[in-house]
Every structure is written in structure tokens, then in C-alpha cells.
Specification:
Blueprint: E1 14-17, E2 21-26, E3 30-35, E4 38-41, E5 44-49, H1 53-68, E6 76-78, H2 91-94, E7 98-102, E8 105-116, H3 119-128, E9 130-131, E10 134-135, E11 145-151, E12 154-155, E13 163-164, H4 167-199, E14 202-214, E15 217-221, E16 230-234, H5 250-258, H6 272-293
Antiparallel strand pairs: 1-2, 2-3, 3-7, 4-5, 6-7, 8-11, 8-12, 8-14, 9-10, 12-13, 14-15, 14-16
Helix pairs in contact: 1-6, 5-6
Length: 294
């Protein structure tokens, strides 16, 4: 399978080149988002990609955008690339990994919702019995299910790491109306997706959302419930008190930790079998969720 690491010249103005996605201008009010197969871990892009990863991310976002539009509107217009005037030779490269979306003014808050104690949340809980200022009960363990999902936002920083902040910081920047909207919709989205994932034998441990403004309306943007924005666990391997092997790029994280990489560029080369295993995990999540959402 071919691996798309760079998007060729499309004859469009390129607005943004992220770790994974590239964004192009389609007139004043539309954007073309293309998901590459680039792999990022610990905020470093690797020299090798994961074949098919960009298509998985895009197809999963399409499934979830359509399944959740009753909860909150989103920026998706279409996934069909016909009629956009793109060069014929690039269409096979872009097919299945591209979305035409409404242009929005981004709200610079990463809306994280946690249903289980893992990652940085577990580390913070051990130190303070809270996560991002949200107090939690005593006695929780690694991978424990929380009594209720919690909203733990971060202020976005394109030049470095996003900053985990208490909800009060978001209210100080954006006001109560915007904060209430993005908090409540994020929690509703998480609960809806958790129930759907459970039917597929998957636990949605945590996830993150981004929102933007189209006119005065707040809409869901970027990607949603992908393995890159969400922590998916196989339900049959879940055990409270122990780390759970995520259905994403976890094999890559484990490998670079094992070889002692310092998490600074350049990233190390990855074995072919590790790349294949990671690709399989992405495809597995998509197929499981497609069966319950399609």
C-alpha cells in the first residue's frame, strides 16, 4: 500500500501544514482538508508513515460527523472531490482522505473529555487527587472509570504544547456562553460515542474536540473520535489498575520508550513489522465502528 507523506501541488493556496493534515483554500468560505499518512508521536513527526492512516482518520471523522450532527453542527460539507477543479492526476491520491469543510474561526480551546483515568490525568491525580482543577474521589487507580465524565480543557498553542487549564481560565477568555456551549456539547458527544463504541467492543477512555465559529454559530471542526484524537481500548483487554493497550499508535510509543529515544528530533526509524501492526490497529478500529455507525 502506498504511503502519502506529502501532498503534491494542487493549484490551491496552502494555508496550513500540520503534523498530519494539510489545509488548502477553496475560495472565501470553504477549505480542503487532506489527511496524510504521517505519524507523529511525542510531538515529533517520524520519517516513515503508517500506510492508509490518513484514509482511516478521514473515514472515521466522516462517520462520526454524520452520526453526531443532531448533537452539534459541524463544518463538513462533502467528501466528494468532483467539481473542485483539482488536477486529474492528484484525485487518486486524495480520494478517501479529504474533506471539503466550511471555513471557521477557531476557538483556541482543546476540549478534552475524560471518562477514565489515564495518561497525564493519572499522573496529576496521583499528585493532587484532581485533574485540571476537577476534584476526584480517593481510591481511584490507573485506568479506573470515573464516576462521571469530566471536561478538562487546554488552551491551544500552535508553537508548543497545549496548556492544561482549569475551566475558569476558559471562562475568563471566552465568557460563560461559549464555555457552557462547548463544555455541554463535548460531554454529550462523549456520552453518545461511548455508548456506540461499547456496542463495537471498544471503551472510549478519553477524547478531544475543537470548535470554531461560522458567522455567530459554534460548530465542531477538525477531526472527531479518531484514534489520533481519542484513546480507544479493547473492552476485552480492560483491567482496572493496569495500563491498557490502546487501539492506535501505542506500539510505536512502546517501541521508542523501549529503545530509549529521547523524544527529540530526529525520530528513529521504525521496523516494518511495527508499521504493519500499527496500520492494522487503525483499520481494526474503523471496521469495528463502521459496523455500529454505518
Amino acid at each position: 500500500m502506498n504511503c502519502l507523506l506529502e501532498v503534491p501541488d494542487l493549484g490551491l493556496r496552502r494555508l496550513h501544514r500540520g503534523k498530519v493534515r494539510e489545509v488548502f483554500e477553496l475560495g472565501a468560505d470553504r477549505l480542503l482538508m487532506v489527511a496524510t499518512d504521517r505519524l507523529s508521536a511525542f510531538d515529533v513527526v517520524f520519517p516513515q508513515g503508517i500506510p492508509g492512516k490518513g484514509r482511516v482518520l478521514t473515514q472515521m471523522s466522516l462517520l462520526w460527523f454524520r452520526a453526531t450532527e443532531h448533537i452539534v453542527p459541524n463544518h463538513l460539507i462533502q467528501a466528494d472531490l468532483s467539481g473542485l477543479g483539482l488536477p486529474d492526476h492528484v484525485l487518486p491520491l486524495l480520494e478517501g482522505r479529504s474533506m471539503v469543510v466550511r471555513r471557521a474561526r477557531r476557538i483556541d480551546v482543546e476540549c478534552v473529555v475524560r471518562g477514565y483515568l489515564a495518561g497525564s490525568g493519572w499522573k496529576e491525580y496521583q499528585a493532587s487527587r484532581s485533574v485540571c482543577g476537577v476534584p476526584l474521589p480517593e481510591g481511584l487507580r490507573l485506568s479506573s472509570r470515573l464516576p462521571e465524565p469530566i471536561f478538562t480543557p487546554a488552551l491551544k498553542n500552535d508553537a508548543g504544547h497545549d496548556e492544561n487549564v482549569p475551566e475558569s481560565r476558559v471562562r475568563a477568555v471566552y465568557g460563560d456562553a461559549v464555555t457552557d456551549f462547548i463544555k455541554q456539547r463535548s460531554l454529550e458527544l462523549y456520552r453518545f460515542a461511548s455508548r456506540a463504541a461499547a456496542r463495537a467492543g471498544i471503551i472510549l477512555a478519553d477524547t478531544k474536540f475543537e470548535y470554531g465559529l461560522v458567522g455567530d454559530a459554534i460548530v465542531l471542526i477538525d477531526e472527531v473520535f479518531t484514534p489520533d484524537s481519542s484513546r480507544y481500548w479493547p473492552a476485552d483487554r480492560y483491567q482496572e489498575g493496569a495500563p491498557v493497550d490502546s487501539l492506535d499508535k501505542q506500539p510505536v510509543r512502546d517501541y521508542v520508550e523501549r529503545i530509549g529515544w529521547n523524544k527529540q528530533p530526529p525520530a528513529p526509524q521504525l521496523p516494518d513489522e511495527l508499521i504493519a501492526e500499527t496500520a492494522r490497529r487503525y483499520e481494526d478500529v474503523l471496521e469495528r465502528l463502521r459496523r455500529v455507525l454505518a
